[in-house]
């Protein structure tokens, strides 16, 4: 993702093209992958749909455990990004594992369902950096999996680890589990909690039906980063329940 900037401009371009048209701009793909992707797009009834936020809804989805990390695939789009290329990369990965078409179709549905949150994180990273002069970011799938970090920033000689998640029952359960260390040890740094209610008009704006963080929400995140107030993780990790901490923009420090 190193060379992807101005993701909102990309969204405006995507909205002009169908998935079939978008696939024509994916020059690095093999003919085999393009042909298989067209078949999947047809099966998912996406082939003539515009590449906007609505296209990530009403999909055939495979909920079985799979050996494909969608965040890795999203991060692999270095110089060009589009929903069509993202799907094609999923298909290519599935072909390398010799999976059948119906199975691939369900995996693509699941991957496309995850795409809005990846785009929202990338947009949040861009907007936060605009408001933090001198801050730099480092994006790696390893940070997401190993470091439990969605967005990693270096700012004022400190490491900030932003957690981006939806403020839903499932989102809070998974995040609180992370916070308790049940999914692996948390790394040192200032951990900034960024829960979002995607149905909140205060938190979210819609751009071509992609749900993105509002200016107000982004300002709250930046204000939290700049604030001198924070929770010390050592004082909260032993509490039986601290869900309320994770329901609001907040931060804690791990030395």
What labels would you give this structure?
globular, 11 helices, two-stranded antiparallel sheet, 2 domains, alpha/beta, 255 residues, six-stranded mixed beta sheet, 44% helix
Write the layout of secondary structure elements.
Elements: H1 7-14, H2 19-23, H3 31-43, H4 70-75, H5 83-96, H6 101-130, E1 136-138, H7 141-145, E2 151-155, E3 158-166, H8 169-179, E4 189-196, E5 204-207, E6 210-213, H9 215-226, E7 231-232, H10 233-236, H11 243-246, E8 250-254
Parallel strand pairs: 3-4, 7-8
Antiparallel strand pairs: 1-2, 2-3, 4-8, 5-6
| Strands in their spatial order, largest beta sheet | 1-2-3-4-8-7
Order of helices and strands: HHHHHHEHEEHEEEHEHHE
Q: How many domains comprise the coordinates?
A: 2
Summed over residues and divided by their number, the pLDDT gives a mean of 89
What does this structure look like?
With 255 residues, the protein is of the alpha/beta class. The chain has 2 domains: 111 residues, no CATH class; 124 residues, no CATH class. Helices cover 44% and strands 16% of the residues. The chain contains 11 helices and 8 strands. The strands form 2 sheets. Strands 1-2-3-4-8-7 form a 6-stranded mixed beta sheet, sandwiched between helices. Helix 3 crosses helix 6 and helix 5 crosses helix 6. It is globular.
């Amino acid at each position: 993702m190193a060379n992807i900037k101005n993701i909102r401009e990309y969204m405006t371009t995507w909205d002009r093209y169908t998935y079939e048209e978008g696939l024509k701009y994916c020059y690095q793909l093999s003919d085999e992958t393009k042909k298989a992707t067209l078949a999947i797009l047809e099966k998912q009834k996406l082939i003539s749909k515009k590449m906007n936020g609505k296209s990530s809804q009403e999909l055939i989805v495979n909920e079985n455990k799979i050996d494909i990390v969608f965040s890795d695939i999203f991060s692999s789009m270095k110089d060009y990004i589009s929903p069509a290329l993202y799907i094609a990369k999923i298909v290519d990965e599935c072909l390398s594992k010799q999976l059948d078409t119906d199975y691939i179709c369900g995996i693509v549905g699941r991957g496309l369902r995850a795409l809005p949150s990846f785009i929202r994180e990338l947009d949040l990273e861009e907007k936060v950096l605009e408001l933090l002069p001198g801050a730099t970011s480092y994006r790696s799938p390893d940070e997401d999996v190993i470091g439990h970090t969605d967005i990693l920033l270096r700012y004022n000689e400190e490491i900030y680890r932003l957690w981006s998640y939806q403020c839903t029952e499932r989102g809070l359960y998974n995040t609180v589990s992370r916070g308790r260390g049940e999914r692996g040890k948390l790394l040192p740094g200032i951990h900034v909690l960024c829960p979002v209610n995607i149905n909140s008009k205060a938190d979210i704006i819609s751009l071509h039906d992609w749900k993105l963080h509002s200016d107000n929400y982004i300002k709250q995140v930046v204000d939290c980063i700049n604030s001198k107030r924070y929770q010390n993780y050592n004082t909260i990790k032993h509490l039986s329940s601290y869900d309320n901490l994770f329901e609001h923009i907040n931060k804690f420090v791990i030395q």
